[in-house]
Amino acid sequence: MTRSRSRLANDSWESLLTAHAALMKRFAAEPIWGEVSMREYDVLYTLAKHEGPIRLFELGRGVLLSQPALSRLVERLAERGLVERTPDPEDGRGLRLGLTAAGREAQRRVGGRHAVDVARAVADVLTDEEMRQLESIGRKLAGAQAPAQTRTTSKEAVL
Amino acid sequence: MTRSRSRLANDSWESLLTAHAALMKRFAAEPIWGEVSMREYDVLYTLAKHEGPIRLFELGRGVLLSQPALSRLVERLAERGLVERTPDPEDGRGLRLGLTAAGREAQRRVGGRHAVDVARAVADVLTDEEMRQLESIGRKLAGAQAPAQTRTTSKEAVL
DNA sequence: TTACGGTAGATGCAAACGCATGAACTTCGA
DNA sequence: TCGAAGTTCATGCGTTTGCATCTACCGTAA
């Protein structure tokens, strides 16, 4: 008998989780996190990717942290001179976050070494085809996750 | 020009990370984590899956936590009567961890509801084919992650 | 047997986190 | 135009985490 779609979905999610945990552990064990921690790097990378001032709550979308935790993490990075926080002229409540020169440099330095480790871990195991599939699947999964729509009317087979 | 394998590997890993964060946020927002937190559920689920006594450090493989954090998390679960810790008769250093009846019941209760959310999030977005691909890719990635072998001799294109 | 290196968990402590809430500002309807 | 509701970020506080270290035990070899 074939697995139900629900079962298949849960199995594939568990597989993603397991892979995530295994790779994160491997990367965490690499000796490149002296300057910035993995979580800090996550923030620096997101800021580097956007290349323009970004709001705190936008940053929060990509980072798996609560809003207060992110607020204080950014505060620490600012105190260390890696991130710049300026009030948003167009919205008195908000901040505009950006990397300082030192922050950008740190991101590049750590990112370069991290990318080597990622390449080793992933490219040694997957074919080009699989990597492309993973990229596509991840994009689809991340794309449609407004945090809890109740728009579904279809009855679904549960496990 | 085609992306280098290293670039492809990094892009696909970023995609996995983004999907992971988006889905975790969505699941965390679901109103099912009153009884046990997500991390606690992770431990209960792992114990339920194994179905036999398991060692703490084995548990640690699957869970993204430091050894001391896991040790204390298990301690708390034991105090709440969800997990049973008994000394391992075959190894005086070790523990044998298992679910209590209450723990198993809690895992089933929360797990059932969580599975519904997972199915909604994943199966609504991916085809059966994609879910199977994701499962296979995740398995491959998780499989080969002994935390930092230096067995590679090939020169690799770095970014 | 006994010493020695290695492994499994536990513990002290400072750092970081999440939840609840607060302060400042924006937005929108009356 | 004015007040209520919503949004953005910060802060207080108790809980949890990670790092370093410690204790207890195992395995091996002299």
TrEMBL record, chains A, B:
Keyword annotations of the record: DNA-binding, Transcription, Transcription regulation
InterPro entries: HTH_MarR-typ, MarR/SlyA-like, Tscrpt_reg_MarR-type_CS, WH-like_DNA-bd_sf, WH_DNA-bd_sf
Domain HTH marR-type, first and last residues per copy: 1-143
Keyword RNA-binding among UniProt keywords: no
GO BP term (any one): response to stress
Molecular-function annotations in GO: DNA binding; DNA-binding transcription factor activity
Entry-linked Gene3D superfamilies: Winged helix-like DNA-binding domain superfamily/Winged helix DNA-binding domain (1.10.10.10)
Protein name: MarR family transcriptional regulator
Lineage, highest ranks first: Bacteria, Bacillati, Actinomycetota, Actinomycetes, Glycomycetales
